[in-house]
Each structure stands twice: as C-alpha cells, then as structure tokens.
Amino acid sequence: MSAGVRETLWLLARIGLAAQEMAQLRLRLWQIEARARLRLGLGSLMLSLLATMLAMAAIGLGLAASVMQLQQAGWSLPAALGLASGGAAALSLVILLLAGRALRGALGR
Question: pTM for the whole thing?
C-alpha cells in the first residue's frame, strides 16, 4: 500500500471511531435527560397528589361548614345535607367537563 492510501484509511478509521464515540455520547446524554425528566415528572406527580388531597379536605370542611350554616338558618339536617351534596355534585360535573375539554385539547383531539 502506498503512503497516501494508508493515510486515507487511517483518517477514515479515525472518523469512524469519532462518529461511534459521538453516537455513544448522544445516547448517554439522551439517557441522562430522560432520567432527569422522569425524576421531575415523579416529583410533580407527588406534589399534585398532595395538593389534591389537601383540596379534598378543604372542600369537605367547606361542605360541613355550609351544612352547619344552613342548619343554623333553620333548614333541617336532611335538607341541608341534600342541598350541599347537590351543589357539590353539580360543581363536580362542571369541573369534570372542563377537565375533559382540557385533556382533549392537550391530546389534540
């Protein structure tokens, strides 16, 4: 083999190794980014669950307070409970419809 062919083959081998190394580095970077996104996603999920539990407790306390206020205003206990639960059901349906619309918008449907 001549010196020019040998240098060309050596240069092609170095380019091939550099391309392989670059592909491995890109894969490693992608794996690190995926792990970071997963960690952030799990943290967000945990905070969302905590916020949901606190919101449910606050709604329950608000409903109990509204029943007490209705009872003090002269309503019977079954009527106050029925009105509070009916209002909560109506509000839940509105929130469910809004959440469904937001989810369809997020999914592009």
Answer: 0.56
